[in-house]
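pls read this protein:
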Amino acid sequence: MNVHGGYNGNKKEKVLDFSVNLNPLGVPESVKAYIVNNLGALDTYPEIEARTARQYLAREHGLESSNIIMGNGAVELIYLLAKTVKPKKVLLIQPTFSEYERAFRLSDAECIHYFLKSDDDFKLDLEDLLYTILIHKPGVMVMCNPNNPTATYIKNKAIKKIIEALKSYGGILMIDESFSAFENMPTAISLLYYDNLFLLRSMTKYYAIAGIRLGYGIGAKEIIDQMQLQKEPWTLNAIASNIVEVLLKDEEYQLKTKKWYKEEKAYFLEGIKKIHFLTVFESKANFFLCHCEFDSEELKSRLLEKGIFIRTCHDFASLEGKYIRIALRNRAENRLLFEALIAIQEALKEKKEVPSLSY
């Protein structure tokens, strides 16, 4: 099984968990109220295909419900697409979320890695990628936008050319947009007139409902219909299905999130400049990829001694050794993180434990 963040989030351990890139505002009060007020309905089966939830999401995006498929988190739909399409080859833009590769390998696909380089700040060389697509002709290409863990963002102008290159021989583009809601950048939903595009969305991250699991996919009716044929019934429980309407209508939570995100991102970028052994990459998401001048496991261990847990990137292709991912938290927690990092920096400086550090 692949490694993910969040395993140190046990409340009993009193650890501040920066490995989980969820909204730190927590579960919306509207959702808590809904659950409490509807406990009596737990003996009722949910809709098999979550028809009502699909209708709400379709209305939200200006689509038909036939363009929407619901999932028990976005991860279910990654595996479902792999099982449905069964491509011989899959092109993965690396480094990225490890479940993509696992899902397609389980469906017997050959996984081809296209690596973005840290020396180029993980920016995409579009012409080189298009050449790679036409050489390998993958049945499916997967990209995460903004990408996990690099937090890089690819604009629709480039995505359109990728879609057209894939379409020229019948390939499909899957874009995971699970983190798109935070930055509010243009998404590929405006490109859905292409019938070889499938978008993946998670409501888990933005609304901090990791324990409920709620995701959905958007695509052409033909793709959605094929996936529905392969999908097990009742993968979405009644609570997850019924809170879609509640979440979409919670404008107060959305406004609070927008305010938090703007303020805390600016605070984080200012604070990280004071940590000389970390280099942060540009981020279009609610987390930051950082390069550490010494082994990331050592930094993880030092922070854990101070009650702070971070995500090292040893399990991401090409990020082994000196990379960490830090989620954006609330002001009090972010301040404690920087205090801990500064303390580590001072200790290293005083003891000269890491000669490569420059001050």
